[in-house]
Amino acid sequence: MRIGIVGCGKIVGQYLESFRRLEDVRLVAVADLDMERARAVASEWNGGGAGQAAADDGASVRALSVEELLAADDVDLVLNLTIPAAHAEVALAAIAAGKAVYGEKPLAATTAEARRVLDAAREAGVVVGCAPDTVLGTGIQTARKAIDDGLIGAPVAATATMVTPGHERWHPNPDFYYQPGGGPLLDMGPYYVSALVTLLGPVVSVVGAASHTRPERVIGSGPRAGESFPVAIDTHVTGVLVHESGALSTLVMSFDAVATHSSNIEVHGPQGTLAVPDPNHFDGETRLFRLGGTEWETLPVSAGYAGSGRGYGIADLASTPAGEEPRAGGALAFHVLDVMESLLDAAHSGKAVAVASRAERPSAVPLTGHEG
Questions:
Q1: Distance of alpha carbon 126 from its chain centroid, rounded?
Q2: What is the dihedral of CA 361, 362, 365, 370, to 10 degrees?
Q3: Pairing of strands 2-6, 26-31
Q4: How far is residue 160's CA from residue 238's CA, in Å, rounded to a whole number?
Q5: Which of 122, 176, 222, 335 could make a disulfide contact with 359, Cβ separation 3.0–4.6 Å?
Q6: Cβ pair 267, 154 in contact under 8 A
């Protein structure tokens, strides 16, 4: 699958690292509103590693304008790495050009925009995929296999916790994290909610609460260090997700707290408890405490794409038979966005909110090495 990237910001390097390892994914072009950034990424790729081999074959990566990339005949899929507010606009333009789309999370800033993307893709007959693909790695997939194998019995509850004092401490341009489409829930929530749906199945309703603690923040690093910027979103969100299976997940997402001893995710059943690794990573230890046991045990890696990284969801999409939904597909991304938007609605209204969308629990990933 021939890939064109739109958006050459901080995250692009992680995708480039994966593309150097994935034989069935070939990067052909990059674009950014800032042409210098696009040229820098193309130069980096063409100057070494797998990119050098491609250049020697006369197929070096080209730096293009966004319009040129969307019109390029040799781009099969547009990897959309723009800011959340631009996700829908870029995705719709790519679909209009007849290209498949794989986007960074969230799928769009709102479910209304996301629905337009999926409807347009269906009418055009192209596929939509979306991060996070961390759920395809050995960490979450090993935990899922433990659940499917009945090691804890039927899951009854889960907890998911992410706290940080804020991205402005390390990100040189953190403004978009604090505008609509950002915030701890929409920024980090996709990792956690996608993992919870992968582990426990879709969500049918939510309740929640949220707070907006400060009207502005101060950038802590880079050329803008010391500059203040406004905060337009809730920075601490908590809620309970009611899964179709009956399991209850308690979610805490915060840009206001310093640290926590809590596991990223724990899943509880009558026969045991699973400590699930960080859903923002592709690997990590899955630990099990059995009923009647005396200590935690680390489970052997038993499922998922081994050694994976950002971009493996695109390779999974490329290998998905025509007409089937990719594991990191648009339907799951829409449901995750719908869950998060519903949770914010519940937090502001003080009432339980039904989640209108449904998504099938993605199929499990067998333990797969690079050669797979």
A1: 20
A2: -150
A3: parallel
A4: 10
A5: 335
A6: no
Q: What's the mean per-residue pLDDT of the chain?
A: 94
Q: Are strands 248-254 and 216-218 parallel, antiparallel or unpaired?
A: unpaired
Convert the pLDDT of each residue in 150-186 to its tens digit. 999 999 999 999 999 999 999 999 998 998 878 999 9
Using CA atoms, how far residue 163 sits from 251, 257, 309, 338, in Å, is 11, 5, 23, 22
User: 273 CB contacts (<8 Å, ≥6 apart)?
Assistant: 152, 266, 267, 288, 289
Dist. CA 115–CA 131, nearest whole Å: 17
Residues 168 and 187: their CA atoms lie apart, in Å, by 13
Helices and strands counted in the chain (H then E): 10, 17
Place of tokens 């403004």: 175
Mean pLDDT across 338-360: 97
Q: Which of 262, 273, 265 lies closest to 299 in space, CA to CA?
A: 273
CA distance 336 to 197: 8
Q: How far apart are CA 242 and CA 370, in angstroms?
A: 36
Which tens digits make up the pLDDT trace of 236-273? 999 999 999 999 999 999 999 999 999 999 999 999 99
Residue matched to tokens 């690794």: 277
**CB atoms closer than 10 angstroms to residue 321:** 5
d(CA 314, CA 103): 10
CA-CA-CA-CA torsion sign (315, 316, 317, 320): positive
Query: In whole angstroms, what is the distance from residue 156 CA to residue 125 CA?
Result: 39
3-class secondary-structure state, position 96: helix
CB-based contacts of 218, cutoff 8 Å, min separation 6: 168, 226, 227, 228, 229
Residue 346: beta bridge partners?
A: none
Helix (H, G, I), strand (E, B) or coil at 75: coil
